[in-house]
Amino acid sequence: MIAYIIRRLLYAIPILVGVNLLTFALFFVVNTPDDMARMQLGIKRVTPEAIQKWKAERGYDRPLLYDGTAQGTDRITRTIFFEKSVKLFVLDFGRADDGRDIGHEIRTRMGPSLAIAVPVFLLGLFVTVSFALLLAFFRATYLDFWGVVACVAMMSISSLFYIIGGQYLVSKIWHLVPISGYAGGVDAARFLILPVAISVVAGIGSSTRWYRTIFLEEIGKDYVRTARAKGLSEMAVLFRHVLKNAMIPILTGVVVVIPLLFMGALITESFFGIPGLGSYMIDAINAQDFAVVRSMVFIGSVLYIVGLLLTDLSYTLVDPRVRLQ
Amino acid sequence: MPIVLWTDALVFLLIACAIGSGVYVSRREYLLASWRRVGESRAGMAALTVLAAFILVGLLDSLHYRPRLEAVAGQSANGFGTEVRSALDVLLLPLKAATEKTYSAPLATHLYARETVELPDGTQARVFPRLKHGGVHLKDPAQDRGRDVARHILRGLVLAVLAGLTFAAIALQAAAVRWGVRWPAAWRRIRRGETRFAWNAVLATLAVLLLLAGPVVSLAGGYHVFGTDKVGQDVLYLTLKSIRTGLVIGTITTLAMLPFAVALGIVAGYLGGWVDDVIQYLYTTLNSIPGVLLIAASVLMMQVVIDTHPDWFATSAQRADARLLALCLILGVTSWTGLCRLLRAETLKLRELEYVQAAQAFGASASRIMGRHILPNVMHIVLIAVVMDFSGLVLAEAVLSYIGIGVDPSTISFGTMINTARLELAREPVVWWSLVAAFAFMFVLVLAANLFSDSVRDAFDPRIAGRRIAPAAQGQAA
User: Fold this and answer.
1) Which of chain A's termini has less CB crowding within 10 Å, N or C?
2) Distance of CA A300 to the CA centre of its chain
3) At B226, phi and psi to the nearest 5?
């Protein structure tokens, strides 16, 4: 088990290197730092001096890969590639284009992001699995048919509609909770209820339908017939046998996103003014702050790889047949 | 001067591909059988009818040209304007030209905001001014509007019924000739759903569409049916223009990623070894970057490229189009990995089957086996992936445009409409119509795409096509 984890972690290294090279190519080779500076300072009427100053302030005035003028290891380390890309591996994110420390921002913004993402994840999983079980229980009846119709309709609605409509109805018409904003401590609940509820509702359609298919696939299997032949009640069959076995495919899709919960939800956070990582990302995109976007891309891939590893490990917990070598 | 934008060219290519594969399929009975199953699905065919209406609008909007400049006195007209128009623009020219000053409600005759106007006697007053185009034919709006709107709607309904009857007559005549029966018998068969193809669903959907479209077309002649937006543009015009953007993103993206996904997936699965390792590494790396982040990074970079090279594009429409195309390509790059993995797994399975081994024993080359023997047998996976991706991409466009990494702000799309309209709900009084119109059209488009893709999947997925749902145990479900 330990050996397996270590080997998987070693596999992750080439992938992270790949991600790193890709982002480096995207941010520094496709566009030179000069382009970025011109973009930031305005396309027209920009002096070369202003560009030089902008680059020097942010450390973009170095050579890309190799500095022939420097001495010793500085030839490698005093380059954009080392400063901006390699240092990501030790989680040294450097400074944003507006001069703030990205690492510090990420640490402080993680809290609000988790405060919204974790309840959405747990509640959403609970609600959708329950609905799916309900539909599977009433399979091939009108309830099941209209349930699936409702699911398809709900997944055809834009997530923006849920957010805009929910904000309008609950906050503006009914005045139940504030439209947007955030506060620390217990007070946060007041701000979090609406975004959590909306995110859960927005996810019901597609997940319920997907889980229902999984349950129905399990229900068609031989062991279910055996369980019924033994005289077990439909309830016992569903909860004791089908639910447990259906957890394996459900886990594949679910566990992998757990680490990504740290990243928060882009749209929800920005609509509700929650100072998490999702809104940080959106602010960075709007301000065209490439340093922040680059760091977030890297963190995102690290978390995704951790998620894949967790998925594999969780298999051994729920399915004793799976042995990791 | 006709002008072919990049996305137009790809749309035409896509249509050519669709016609080509249609001809291919129609000559092969085993492929036709699956499509007949799609044709039997009522929901699928109703959805396809709606989709066809959307596609028609999108296609009209893909025929672009640059109008010749009006001759200025003393000079001959020899230049072309920088404005790019489409065939749809020509049809909707009255709507496009009928811009008001600012917001006006659906079917309104007055602006939505008070304005200071000078009265004939020299004093000033703050009133709701009359619209320049909406309901301008009415003498006394307060009294006549209700009756006039009703008359328009009635006229639209009559036109719709006439059009519907004409179409039904053509369909009935065709059916009657085909089956060798009289009209009443043909009508009975269609109505009761005794035909293999779900004609009743198609005709019913068409009737609903006509009954909805008729009054709208009739009203659009005299009013702003969905109101006007902040700068006074007709919302109906904007929604119709948005359709093309949605369709282009939903289809061109898939078209762009298909060659990569199919070729790499099959090659990785069939050849194995280091080729497989490299391809797997490639898609794992791409896949491990959360999609929206990769899209954000790529779009930001592409924006810099486009903004620093303004000389590449003759018109702003071409620049917006380049950005739309780039967005499609970027979405394609981020979304091919899933299909590639599926195809690789399927090829691994097929590689071991007897017919492939037989081909190998006959000495067929690897490329020939992959092209002739494996590719046709994984096409159902490709088809399912294509139709399933469509609705997700249409929805994604709106979200991406909201974040600011979607289409060019000057491109009319559901995303840009929602983005500009979302602050209007906070206004007092509320401006709801452009949001509602955008969401409603998007909902119908995505719902139709979802229903159609479900019926395609049900017909082509061998795991589902052969499965029937076991009914619940007796007494338990009741």
Assistant:
1) C
2) 7
3) -105, 20
Q: What distances in angstroms separate CA B27 from CA A259, B30, B33, B372, one per listed residue? A: 51, 9, 11, 17
> Checking DSSP bridges between strand B115-118 and strand B124-127, what pairing results, if any?
antiparallel
Query: SS3 of B33, please?
Result: helix
**Strand partners for B130:** B110
Q: Which residue has the tokens 């893709």?
A: B453
Mutate to test the interface with B, among A16, A30, A285 (most CBs of B within 10 A): A285
For B423, nearest residue in chain A (alpha carbons): A164
| Spatial contact of B431 and B421, defined as CB atoms under 8 Å apart | yes
Amino acid B248: pLDDT: 92
Cβ contacts of residue B454 below 8 Å, gap of 6+? Answer: A152, B43, B44
- What gap in Å lies between CA B154 and CA A242, rounded to an integer? 56
Distance CA A88, CA A302 (A): 11
Residue A97 makes CB contacts below 8 A (sequence gap 6+) with A40, A58, A287, A289, A290, A291, A292
**Within an 8 Å CB–CB cutoff, is residue A164 touching chain B?**
yes
B126: amino acid identity, one letter: R
Positive or negative torsion for Cα A305, A309, A311, A312: positive
CATH code for the structural domain at B2-64+229-469: 1.10.3720.10
Single pTM value for the model: 0.89
**Is residue A219 predicted with pLDDT exceeding 60?**
yes
Helix-helix angle B316-351:B375-403, to 10 degrees: 140
Kindly state the tokens that stand for A86: 């390699």
Q: Which of residues 238-267 of A touch B (CB under 8 A)?
A: 260, 263, 266-267
Contact state of A26 with B395 under an 8 Å Cβ cutoff? no
Nearest chain B Cα distance for residue A293, angstroms: 7
Closest by Cα among A103, A101, A131 to A204: A131
Length of chain A, in residues: 325
Is the Cβ–Cβ distance between B262 and B376 less than 8 Å?
A: no
Residue B356: helix, strand or coil by DSSP? helix
| B399 closest CB neighbour out of A43, A160, A294 | A160
Sequence ranges of the domains in chain B: 2-64+229-469, 107-220
Chain B contact for A133 (CB, 8 A cutoff)? no
Residue type, A142: Y
CB B176 within 8 A of CB B183: yes
Rg for chain B, CA atoms, rounded? 27
Q: Which residue has the tokens 């998987």?
A: A8
- Token pair for residue B45? 């065919």
B226, B100 Cβ separation under 8 angstroms: no
Largest CA distance in chain B: 100
Rounded to the nearest 5°, which phi and psi values hold at B65? -155, 165
pLDDT at B239 over 70: yes
The CA distance from B251 to B247, in Å, is 6
Other beta carbons within 10 angstroms of residue B33's beta carbon come to 10
Query: Residue with structure tokens 């990501």?
Result: A88
**Tokens 């566009």 sit on residue:** A31
**pLDDT grade, residue A186 (50/70/90)?**
confident
Determine the pLDDT at residue B477: 32
Q: Is the ipTM of this complex over 0.95?
A: no
In A26-97, DSSP assigns E strands to: none
Return d(Cα B202, Cα B44) in angstroms, integer: 9
Residue B429, number of CB atoms within 10 A of its CB: 9
A197 touches chain B (CB under 8 A): no
Closest CA to A165 of B421, B467, B141: B421
Min Cα distance B252 → chain A (Å) is 20
Hey, how many other C-beta atoms are within 10 angstroms of the C-beta on B283? 21
Question: Does residue B429 have a cis bond before it (omega within 30 degrees)?
Answer: yes
